[in-house]
Each structure stands twice: as structure tokens, then as C-alpha cells.
Amino acid sequence: MHIVKTDIEGVVIIEPKVFDDERGYFFESFSQKEFEEKVSATVFVQDNESSSRYGVVRGLHFQKPPYEQAKLVRVVKGCVLDVAVDIRKDSPTYGRHVSMELSGENKRQLFIPRGFAHGYAVLSEEAVFAYKCDNYYAPGYEGAILWNDPQIGIDWGLPANDVILSEKDRKNPSFLVKS
Q: Does residue 110 contact residue 13 with C-beta atoms inside 8 Å?
């Protein structure tokens, strides 16, 4: 695996080594040993998968202390714009975000450490999204930020009238940037 640093410390892109031939392809999507050596000593406890259609925006979600979650995300089928927003109040990059396309074709993964809000927008007709978490979901500790908060300024790569949100995500609060 090849590791690419982003503009925000701790958030990294993982590019797997893919072996293609006339039969198709093979790649190792995760190795605990290599992940710990090259990225972080994170132990994942849960795998999740979702399927969504074009225009769906899921997020921006996070877990509050003490149930924060680090995530390793990837797309099995289709294409999404994946976004991580730094919500660590003492961080020099507080309020900034990283975004990148993840797809079944590029097979890239994004590691998002604890202390980030996360979301994605489906850019293809359908997308199957898979991710690992290092902590269990705790419903009483969930938090969220409005997907189109102007203070964060995310370009989701979708016309606003194509965006499909859950009822819950329509009601997410704005993000307050420290002064």
C-alpha cells in the first residue's frame, strides 16, 4: 500500500497495490500489520456498508467523546466525493476539510482519525460504500453538521437541486468556527 498525506495531519489516502490481468483484479484491501506500520495503531471493531443512489449526501456525521470513531472508508462500486472536516477545537486545521473522489475504479481508501466529521456525496448512478470503525456506534453521542454550511464551504460536486438528504440530515446544525 502507498500512503499519501493530505493537507490535514492524520488524514491519509491509501492506494492499494492492484494486480490486474485478463481474469480481473486482486488487491489486499486491509492488513492490520501494514496499516499499523504505515498509518496508525488503530484497531477496527466494526465494518459497515451502505448503498445509495446518485445525489444522496450522507453527513456530516461524527461521534462525541468518549465514543469518537476513526474510520477507514472506501467505495466498492460507483463513485463518491468523500469529505472529512476537522472538528478538533485545539487543532491548527480546525474547521478545514479534505475531500476526494473514492471509486470502485481507483480503489483508494481514506483514513479519517478521531475528531472529524465525515460525509459523502454519491456522484455515480449508484454507490456501495464500505467502512471500518475503531469504536462502536453510540446513538446518544452522535453529532452532525449541516452538509452545506457556508463556513466550511464544501463543493460537493452536485447541483443543489440534485441533492437527496435524509430528514435527519436536513435538520443538522451549522458549524461554529472558533475566532
A: yes
Nearest alpha carbon to residue 85 among 25, 175, 171: 175
Neighbouring C-beta atoms of residue 84, cutoff 10 Å: 29
C-alpha cell at 149: 454550511
* CATH 3.90.950.20, domain 43-170, yes or no: no
Out of 97, 118, 120, 131, pick the active-site residue.
131
pLDDT for the residue numbered 23: 95
pLDDT in tens, 32-61: 999 999 999 999 999 999 999 999 999 999
- Domains in the chain: boundaries: 43-170
Q: Active site includes 2?
A: no
Q: Phi then psi for 36, rounded to 5 degrees?
A: -65, -40
120 classed as catalytic: no
Which residue among the candidates 61, 97, 118, 120 is catalytic per the annotation?
Answer: 61
CA contacts within 13 A on the Cβ side of 54: 8
Read off the C-alpha cell for 18. 492492484
